[in-house]
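Input/output pair, single chain:
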Amino acid sequence: MVGSSTNAAYTPPIVSLLAGGIAGSVEGAATGSFGKDAIRFLSFDTIKSTFADPETHTLSPLRNLLAGMTSGVIASGTAVTPTERIKTALIDDARHSRRFRSAPHAISTLYREHGFVRGLYRGFAGTTLKQASATAFRMGTYNTLKDFETTKKIPQNAAIQFANGAVAGITTTLCTQPFDTIKTRSQSAQGASTVVAVREIWADGGVRGFWKGTTMRLGRTIFAGGILFSVYEVVAAGLRPLFGVKG
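Output:
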């Protein structure tokens, strides 16, 4: 559980779903993060509650990373890939051919021209790599820090939760920028397979090409990570008593 401590109560799946969705909405400011983060927190908390130590409610750093990786794969297959495909295609189309009149028109056009899988799940491999790695580092880093603080009896408050989330954001960006670059290239309006995207990025900028945009992304993820986790903790703490969970 993201919000676990040595005496913390179990977090019901519905609490993870709602708290994660609300935190994602605050973080994303209505950019569609509700569903994505709801799924990420639901799957992560479910996995963690299954394998956590029954006494301390903590996981080892490796298991935290594996739990995050699994929740990233689930999120990619259920929500992230199709929404990112449409968003990226719309952005790319606006810069070039301007074929799409709206998101629904983009969906219908891509479906008609390429079918369901190739139209809406183009770049699935790159997106899933990015989501698995990003969620592994983001959720894994945050929970590893929190579990360490739990064992050291460091009290949790909004400032510490925000700082932990910010560190998780920095770690995630530095470790996963190549996957984000590949995903963006794969999900352009023209579309490219993951292998082709890798070749094009290498041809354009070599190794440095895979980390293009890191500085700009860091400016967002530091604050986004702090906001996401601190809001989640507050909302989850408020919702647990409503579902009969004490502590």
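Residues 61-95 form the longest helix (35 residues). The CA atoms of residues 165 and 225 lie 4 Å apart.
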